[in-house]
Design brief:
203 residues, alpha+beta, binds zinc ion
Amino acid sequence: MKIICVGRNYASHAQELGNEVPKEPALFLKPETALIAKRQPFFIPDFSNDIHYEAEVVIKINRLGKNIQAKFASKYYDKVALGIDFTARDLQKKLKEKGLPWEKSKAFDGSAAVGRFVDVKHFVDIQNVRFSLAVNKEVKQNGKTSEMVFSINQLIEYISTFFTLKIGDLIFTGTPAGVGSVTKNDFLELYLEDDLNLSLTVK
Ligand code: ZN
């Protein structure tokens, strides 16, 4: 199982970090060991003093596929959840400056939290769903999947030209504006439409 993540897929977030809105999706991977086990906290790693939360819509692949056309992509996933792409922003900044891969800042142990998977059928249009992240009950990020630069189906087409998608693979589809740092004992809650989908504590 692998986790494929999309960077800068919301114009508002690309702008807040001073990045251009990309002409094609920016991809990176997280290994299986990045996943936080159910009901476990997020532990701030020793190598960073600036861990950011990034709330994202996560889809779960349910069919093996390669070179999937966007028009068929909806057949390749049937479940959706919210997740957090935890990012060591200080380390990422250094790596970016040196033109090095982002992995150490993005794919470290415990850098991926995923909530409860819901049937895609539950939504009239998965490309028109609201989600939000609150830190200590204060809303910090509000997203709408309609604001993605590249739709989920476009992402699947693009990703599957490089990486064969396998059953159980997860795609983190990018974060909207409002990312920020976590501190010890923060309590994070993610809402998909009006339903609590994921909550976890920072340790
Ligand atoms: Zn992200």
